[in-house]
Amino acid sequence: MYAQMIKSTGKGIKSLDEMEPEERAFQERIDAGGKIEPKDWMPDGYRKNLIRQIGQHAHSEIVGQLPEGNWITRAPTLERKAILLAKVQDEAGHGLYLYCAAETLGVTRDQMTRDLLSGKMKYSSIFNYPTLTWADMGAVGWLVDGAAIMNQVPLQRTSYGPYARAMVRICKEESFHQRQGFDIMMKMVKGTEAQRKMAQDALNRFWFPALMMFGPSDKDSVHSAQSMAWKIKMNTNDELRRKFVDETVPQAEYLGLTIPDETLKFNEETGHYDFAEPDWEEFFQVLKGNGPCNTERLAARNRAWDEGRWVREGLLAHAEKKRSRQMAAE
Amino acid sequence: MSSPESSEYDGTEAAPHGKARTTEWPLWEIFIRGQHGLSHRHVGSLHAADAEMAIKNARDVYTRRNEGVSIWAVEASAIAASSPEEKGALYEPANDKVYRHPTFFDIPDEVGAM
């Protein structure tokens, strides 16, 4: 869900009988809960789908540093600043775990970076929304990281070994992120009236974008079936979205904040909340590059890449010089 | 073998893992030894210009929460690995030697723990 709208192969799912022996063995291994490792045989579509999905996930972690990095110098206390720094550093780490998982599939880091910078590869729509107040740091940790956890916990069981292992590391660290966000929200709602309003405003702005993170409704999600058969997607978008709403509504109530959805209501029959769908037209617009911050985010990544070029080249030249001197001395 | 209708990655078909582009820093595989006397364990990889930087980066990427007391960094291109296709032949010699496992031998109960 940090990976949305991953294009799958255009073909429908094959039955085991229709498969060549290699592919059949591959699918049976996945069905039995086995893991696929980098050097194992895999269908081309599996490899390409995974590169797109893991790559998009990695890019999301990296671009996700921008809206929060925005507040590091403006955190209200030194402690909050240190915590936010640690969180943003974790996001960089998560991006790196995922890039290294994607690289085992035969794509280079440079290629993925280039595709992000050119806009060819996407990152999660959520990071194209601005963080306007300090309460947004609370809402992002609580809702955005909360929604991410919903998706990442089941992905620890995904069929591709390196991806599953990266997810295990990420999940271990992610719970800190959500808790620090909720902690900010608790502080805000117990503060002055202005601070409480700020917290409500942050919830109002982030609620629907957070729901969009799970991707389009199942009925419009054409690429799910193959990904689920391959176990690179473990739950449907709607399942995860509903789970997120069910868990988050009571937390909002605890905070004394109102979810900005008048239709939200607990349904005794289903045991779940009924809730309004996000504006999907807005979602598609944001994915297309027309969100509030798309241009700014991509420009920031491009600037970092361009301005860091002399460092990358300089350190490589230095390493080569050191190596040749060492060889001469031996 | 299935193939996607339109591939975005045709240009990078299965580049050998660990083989960097000329502009890219080399790939290093990172091994960390935890606190409790276990051996070094593979945790992932990262890019670095040289060994010193690989270890510093590994500290930041893989030990932010005191996960380790020792780091090994090995250039990925220097690792030799067995291939999955050889799996059968490579491990076959061990298959018919069940007597290597202690449970192969029946020891009478009256002998006691052994």
From TrEMBL, chain B:
Region (Disordered) location: 1-20
Source organism superkingdom: Bacteria
Identification of the protein by name: 1,2-phenylacetyl-CoA epoxidase subunit PaaB
Encoding gene (name): paaB
